[in-house]
């Protein structure tokens, strides 16, 4: 049994080590494939995000540029002092209703009035900190500008597209534009992050975050400083196509794309550690499953081996014809006696003139007689001891109990044989010899005494019992 355990453990250990090594190699292979695939996936995702962002943010630019070329607005500005405010606010309201922008505005350079679709909001002034954007923009050469600021009307953080409107003499007559609530852009970025499992930023040319799903990052976090100067150079050196940079030895991929219309950078980061941790968890789970399966298999194998071994032992100590113990089985039973047992009866039984039965009726009938006699004896003896087929037509057994009781059992056996119709048709009788043992003598010595009584019974004609008390 111990040897079986050692073999099972050795096999299990070899299989376990092999499985772990195989799982590790597979994990390493998948890790390399994962890094390559993650790069491709991150690039594809970044391009999808770029297309969506470019579409969502360039549309209000074109709307604002269209406003700056609108003949009605230009005509209205030339006669601003005589025109009604409702005419321009109705125009702004029409754009608001059509596109749904949170802010649609016009600031006249002649009157400094800030027209909103809800009416005149204010008169801009260089002394008002909220109006600095307007004067700074007028001082710039660019046709349009994008500014992130709080909307004075709603108080919400907003992306404003500011466009200069000029007359025939290239003089700025107004600043027009629209505003997108940052919440809208944030929701858009959040959808990208949820769908593609990445992080999206929009930054200005210096790396200052202009839009992010983390509101606290806006106008506060410099992403180029966060990523490092080396990555900053990689990002800013190419404004024509998608740039992909590996960070922390492949633990993160940084994809960037310059959006020319916005003069912003789209920066997308993809953390590969999430997938790496997933595969690592998968590896651990696989090892645990292997261990569990191995434990189950080992126990099944051990149980099967034990059952098979017990089956072999049973066969080895069982007589194939009568299914009683054979000589080996009887010896083993005698060796396993509890030391508390003080005395046992040992008996031998032999079928009288069994050879003549075989000669008269054949061996097949002889086998039937042997099985019948064995069943009758065993049914009586098994409550107090064991019976074995010692060989041929001879049976040996032992019983433990009061002498009067066990002796009576032997006489009852003799009576049952003599009253069995099938056995009497064949002229079957038995002789029995018995003795008692206190286990101080060897089994051979005790059996020799029982055999002596058996032979004595046969000498007297058989069909009788002789034991210690009779001599």
UniProtKB/TrEMBL annotation:
<dbReference type="InterPro" id="IPR050469">
    <property type="entry name" value="Diguanylate_Cyclase"/>
</dbReference>
<feature type="transmembrane region" description="Helical">
    <location>
        <begin position="7"/>
        <end position="27"/>
    </location>
</feature>
<dbReference type="InterPro" id="IPR029151">
    <property type="entry name" value="Sensor-like_sf"/>
</dbReference>
<dbReference type="GO" id="GO:0052621">
    <property type="term" value="F:diguanylate cyclase activity"/>
</dbReference>
<dbReference type="InterPro" id="IPR000160">
    <property type="entry name" value="GGDEF_dom"/>
</dbReference>
<keyword id="KW-0472">Membrane</keyword>
<dbReference type="Pfam" id="PF00990">
    <property type="entry name" value="GGDEF"/>
</dbReference>
<keyword id="KW-1133">Transmembrane helix</keyword>
<dbReference type="InterPro" id="IPR043128">
    <property type="entry name" value="Rev_trsase/Diguanyl_cyclase"/>
</dbReference>
<protein>
    <submittedName>
        <fullName>Diguanylate cyclase</fullName>
    </submittedName>
</protein>
<keyword id="KW-0812">Transmembrane</keyword>
<feature type="domain" description="GGDEF">
    <location>
        <begin position="342"/>
        <end position="470"/>
    </location>
</feature>
<feature type="transmembrane region" description="Helical">
    <location>
        <begin position="282"/>
        <end position="301"/>
    </location>
</feature>
<dbReference type="InterPro" id="IPR029787">
    <property type="entry name" value="Nucleotide_cyclase"/>
</dbReference>
